[in-house]
Specification:
The structure holds two protein chains of two kinds.
Chain A lengths: L2 E3 L4 E5 L4 E3 L2 E3 L5 E7 L5 E7 L5 E3 L5 E5 L4 E6 L8 E8 L8 E2 L3 E6 L1
Parallel strand pairs in A: 2-12
Antiparallel strand pairs in A: 1-4, 3-9, 5-6, 5-10, 7-8, 8-9, 10-11, 10-12
Chain B lengths: L4 E3 L2 E4 L5 E6 L6 E7 L6 E7 L2 E5 L6 E5 L5 E5 L8 E8 L9 E2 L3 E5 L1
Parallel strand pairs in B: 2-11
Antiparallel strand pairs in B: 1-3, 3-8, 4-5, 4-9, 5-6, 7-8, 9-10, 9-11
Amino acid sequence: AQSVTQLGSHVSVSEGALVLLRCNYSSSVPPYLFWYVQYPNQGLQLLLKYTTGATLVKGINGFEAEFKKSETSFHLTKPSAHMSDAAEYFCAVSGVNTGNQFYFGTGTSLTVIP
Amino acid sequence: DAGVTQSPTHLIKTRGQHVTLRCSPISGHKSVSWYQQVLGQGPQFIFQYYEKEERGRGNFPDRFSARQFPNYSSELNVNALLLGDSALYLCASSEMPTGYQPQHFGDGTRLSIL
C-alpha cells in the first residue's frame, strides 16, 4: 500500500531562515509527488509537483523540492522564510500504485518567528 | 475563471441525520474527488468520479455515497451521521482522473455533528 510520511508535525523557523519540510513515500514504483499548502479555513493550494523529468522542481512563492529516488524522498525547501509562509503543508502521492488516487501525509505546521 | 466551489460553507447537524454537500468543478474539469479532513490530519480520500462514473472509493462506510451530474458537478451524501463525521469535507477537480494531474481544491464544507 502507498503511504506518505511527513517527519515533524510542527516546524518553527526564524524569518529569513531556511525552510525544510520533509516527506518520504513508500512505493516500489516512483509515484507522482505533490506539495500543497493550506491556510486557515481554506482549501489546499498546489505549491509544486513532480511527475517526470528534472528531479528539482520549482513552485510558487519561492518553494522548491527535489525528488530523490534512492532516498524515496521529496523534501520541500525555501531559502528564506517569510511571515506569510506560516501555514500547514501537505505532501501527497499519486500514480499507478494508488489507482491514480491522491494520498496525503498528516501535514507539517510551519511557524515563522519574527 | 472560477475555481472549485462548494456549498454550504458551514453546516451543523445532529446524530442520525442526513447531509448533502455540493461541489462545482473548475470549468472544463471532468473529474471530481471528495476528501474528508479531520482536524489536525491530512485529507482522506473518499470518492472519485469521472464522466458520472465512480472511479475510486476510499475506506469509508456505505453511509457515504456520491454522484456526478452531466454538468460534472457532484454531491456527497452522508446518512446516519455520527459524531466522528465532524470534519472539513473537501472537493477537488481535475481535467481527467490521471495521477499526474494535480487536484484543484475548493475551500470545503465544515460539518459539525452535535
